[in-house]
Structures are given as structure tokens and as C-alpha cells.
Amino acid sequence: MKMQLLVIAMLAMFGAASAHAGTYTCDVELNDGSKTKIRGVVADSESQARRIAKENNSAIKWINCYKVD
Known about the structure:
The chain is 36% helix and 38% strand. The protein is α+β, with helices and mostly antiparallel strands and 69 residues long. A three-stranded antiparallel sheet has the order 2-1-3. β1 and β2 form a beta hairpin.
């Protein structure tokens, strides 16, 4: 529980640092054909949200992000 609160606090601080930052949700299709969502990506734009979500994850075949707030 403490670790989850720490992660949330870190994301909130990052979001506060940028005046244009928003929260994005990304629909993702993996290389094996399964689909999922990545929620709570803090970014300045849809393209930045895609880059953050794909970072160090070669299993992602297709991704679409949209602003939720």
C-alpha cells in the first residue's frame, strides 16, 4: 500500500511540473494478439503518451492513446 501511494505521489509531482500535462489511457495490442489498456499515463501529448507506454516494452504491436481528463 505504501509503495502504491509513493507511485501515485510521484506521478502527481510529474504532472504538476508541466502546465500542459494530462492523463492518458492507451489501448494496446500485444504481439501475441491479446488486448489490454494502460491507464494513468501522464504526458503532454498523445504521441508522448505512446512513447512512454511503449518504453522498454517490445511486446507491444499496436497502441492508441487518448486524453481522459
